[in-house]
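Hi everyone,

Forwarding the result from last night's run.
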Amino acid sequence: MERASIAIVGMGVTKQGRALGVTEVELRRQALELALVDAGIGRDAIDGYILASHEREDLRYLGLSPNFSWPVQTGGATAPCTFIMAAGAILSGQADMVACAYAMAPSSGGMPGFGGKMSFGSLGYGYPAQVGMIGAASAHALHARWHMDHYGTTSEHLGAVAVQLRDHAVNRPDAMGYGQPITLADHQASPMVVDPFHMLDCCRDTDGGAVFIVTSAERAKSMAQKHPVFLLGAGTGHNIGNWHKRDVYAHHDAIAPAIGRALAQAGVSLGDIDTAQFYDPFTISIIMQLEHYGFCAPGTGGPFVADGGISLGGKIPSNTGGGQISGFYAAGFTPLIEAMKQLRGEAGATQVKGARIALTSGHGLNGGVQNTWSHGTLILGAEA
């Protein structure tokens, strides 16, 4: 993939929230309608469809007639992977205009891939479930405890992440944390979920949908969309390799190969990134990604955030919509939605001044044992 050969020309985002009472397929239909209007095209223009799910029912309901329909699922890394797949389809001549779609409604009784409903036991990550290790919080808590033991990271450092993300969200009407500020004392007083995570260290599932329309940069030039966003570079990694080396907890993900390929394709350096939108299921995820991406030194992520490193005026403004912890949980699509808003100048009170290049990450779907997550990195640009 050459730099900026692919463009995102449409984005549709539904209302995000708890207990919306809307089915997943209807949320995708709503998001598709918004994306088509945003791109200035009709349904017939869509000749490729990639769905972040195990489901395959959408085409009839959405009224689409593409050349292909691919369901894909790699947890919170699915979002960047759908863009990589869309780029491959376009560049190989399989499609001209691809819709990448997502929706979940866990608080309204549905979750794709789990028979319409999700049970707590469904989140048993590989064989550790046999001895009672269930749920994403318990898995990520091991990362956090490793980091604390090796670097002296504290619960207050985790709390600094939660407070900063809420400081962003409190000014964003589309965020779950809108108008609801928190303090470090609030974080410390919130209930313990699994040591060392308090409730305010954790994201919350929300209902919502999102659709992105992807095409070639050449086709984008002839379209009505005045603010296309370009895919400058992409990369993937998988933490199973570190598990085989018995070093899994020191690595939130295998980020090095992902960012290495993404930067090389984009032809930029880390210093060129204006804003980062990280996948943040838990506060430790921000700290460890800041370190492994190279925005701060290993072991310094906590103090980096506490000193304002991810604030709007900081070294790398991050998760400026509140992220998944205080914004909304659209799986790996939350970072992409915010990156698009930033690059299109639509981020409102938390707009990063002069944002032209954004980094996004995705993380999820372990490789058969806890903490062996997939990872995806995209670098997006406001100009080709």
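Residues 112-116 have pLDDT under 50 and may be disordered.

Cheers,
N.
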